[in-house]
Amino acid sequence: MASRMELLLPWCRLRFPVSGTSQTRRAPGRPRLSQVRLSSTKAAAQRVPGREEADSKVGTRKKTFTEVQAERLEQAQRTVLINCPAKISEKKFLTYLSHHGKINSHYFYESYGTYAVVEFSEKDSIASLQDVTRTPGIEEECAVPFKSRLFTLTLKNPSTQAANQAPVHCHKQSTIVVNDLVQKLCSADSVSNQLYTLMDEYQLTEENTKLRFLACSLIQDIACAYFPECTVKPFGSSVNTFGKLGCDLDMFLDLDKIGRSPTRAKTGPFYMEYQMKRVPSERIASQRILSMIGDCIDNFGPGCVGVQKILNARCPLVRFSHQPAGFQCDLTTNNRVAMRSSELLYIYGSLDSRVRALVFSVRCWARVHGITSTIPGPWITNFSLTMMALFFLQKRTPPIIPTLDQLKDLADAEDKHIIEGHDCTFASNLNKIKPTENTETLDVLLSDFFEYFGNFAFNKNSINIRKGKEQNKPEPSPLYIQNPFERALNISKNVNESQLDRFVALARECAWILQQEDTGHSSLSNSQPWGLAALLLPSVASHCIKGKKRKRGPASERIKSLLDSLKINNANSLVNNGGKRTFSNQTQ
User: Fold this and answer.
1) How many CB atoms lie within 10 A of CB 430?
2) Potential cystine with 366: which of 371, 469, 539, 571 (Cβ 3.0-4.6 Å)?
3) How many other C-beta atoms can be found within 10 angstroms of the C-beta atom of residue 413?
4) How far apart are CA 546 and CA 505, in angstroms?
5) Which are the contacts of 149, defined by CB distance < 8 A and separation ≥ 6?
6) How many angstroms separate the CA atoms of 125 and 133, rounded?
7) How many C-beta neighbours within 10 Å does residue 569 have?
8) Number of neighbours of residue 319 by Cβ within 10 angstroms
9) Is residue 448 left, alpha or beta, with left meaning phi > 0 and alpha meaning psi from -120 to 50?
């Protein structure tokens, strides 16, 4: 440990060009971080093929968040969910369904059985399928006669029809275990590609995204019994480009169309209005609506179990498990600020592929080491970590992403949104936002992220992505991250001092590990995890638990060598100039 402490790099990090080649021995096949910090052209070439296509296409119009949502919702309306035997002839299955109309796409997955998601070309095909579908015959129980788009397909002769059939291919719905992830990361050729590999393993797949919109659509069918014009939309991680496989499904019951008044006729002596129940406040209306919808889901929703009505929360919600889809769901209404937050993150995630890769990696790192938790408590949340990563990227030179105020300046009249007194205005059109000129590679960003927050003045400064700069904390919370829209709120108010200290200690430890590899002082052999993989090992946290924290101070080898170099250069300068001092502002 003593030798490791001697090599401790200063936290007030200075960077100087390195001349010559390091003579430090290194295991063959292990790329040094400095070897993969290439020019932007070379760095792009090393990334996974096709990764940067969305960033590099010039003149290609990118769809807005609203357009993507609308397409997905319409697609879900033409889709059915079918519970079917694991051993089934896929060809015969599709032939059978194609009698009702053209099939655009399909896939299988597992969740309390084998399910097929089938998207028809026309919505009428679903009505045709429903016409030939029978209600289940149950001897000892009674079926609630609610006809949905969730079906069960059975074989007429199971023993013969499934005898020689192999199980259908099922798409994954969850992430790989950490040990397998570490092995996969070790096979990457650079730290940057390690981050992209992790993102590929953890991000929502196309199939899983379709399933999330379908689950919302199935709940919408229930809500439409009372509110025919309502829409149920996913928000949060399911749509903001930062969703991880297996994350919860947040649903928004949108009743906006019902509240809109039609254009009043210019002729005639009368106005006509609906008679409606009146309640003292919008919150009470939301509570009553959710209570009723919760009862309907509990009593009539096929596969919906464990319904909980949490109506006294700051944002009232109904929580339930949708077993056929395999999602834990939270249904809310009157939550438009959260929808705008989802769109804002969608924009940031779509601007530059490095944004999502860094966020996924930091969140994975935090979950492995218990910095975040699925249990409510004093831990840092994924949303807070995402805000921290965005803030860090806004601080780069040049910035990788714009601040929220800069996005507001680009907004048009249709982008203006004032929700409950909160200014939620920002440009929705991605094509208006100028791409960054920053060409830093992900290995640099990862290392600097840990170093930046390992030294951040949490005791006096707050984090604010609207301004993109540190500001004095308005309250003495250990961690203060301003809500981008509800500016009086601290989204990390739950975090206590000990959890923040643990985050800082781990950040310093990880920055030290990455810097050691960069300078060729890694003690890991070729067969051991390196780069991002090394940061996911339990030993990283154990060093912090045992008190082996990386501290600030000038007692490092780099500072010593820097001071010695300055002394030598100064002495030489005095000799060469006859004892006269000379000054230069030229960077070496």
Assistant:
1) 15
2) 371
3) 6
4) 11
5) 79, 80, 81, 126, 217, 218, 221
6) 13
7) 11
8) 16
9) alpha
- Return the ∠ at Cα 562 (arms to 561 and 568), rounded to 5°: 85
Strands 317-322 and 327-333: antiparallel
Does some domain include residue 158? yes
Torsions phi, psi for 347 (to 5 deg):
-65, -50
User: DSSP E strands: which ranges in 291-448?
Assistant: 304-310, 317-322, 327-333, 418-419, 422-423
Cβ atoms of 114 and 108 within 8 Å: the answer is: yes
What is the residue whose two structure tokens read 């084998």?
A: 114
- pLDDT for 136: 81
DSSP 414: G
Q: Among all chains, which residue has been given the structure tokens 């069918």?
A: 221
Which residues in the chain land under pLDDT 70? Answer: 1-59, 138-140, 159-163, 259-267, 518-527, 541-588
Q: How far is CA 158 from the centre of its chain?
A: 42
Query: Residue 135: which CATH number?
Result: 3.30.70.330
pLDDT score of 335: 87
pLDDT at residue number 1: 42
**Number of structural domains found in the chain:** 1
Q: Is residue 472 part of a domain?
A: no
- pLDDT tens digit sequence for 532-575: 999 999 887 666 655 544 544 433 444 444 445 544 444 444 43
Three-class secondary structure assignment of 283-305? HHHHHHHHHHHHHHHHHHCCCEE
552 in a structural domain: no
Which residue shows structure tokens 């714009």? 402
Q: Can you list the alpha helix ranges (DSSP code H) found in 466-556? A: 497-518, 532-535, 538-545
* pLDDT of 140: 66
Residue pair 178/431 in contact by the 8 Å Cβ criterion: no
The pTM of the full predicted model, rounded to 2 decimals, is 0.82
**How many CA within 13 A on the CB side of residue 532?**
35
Is 185 a domain residue?
no
Cα separations in angstroms, 333 against 148, 289, 426:
22, 9, 23
CA pair distance 443, 361, nearest whole angstrom:
11
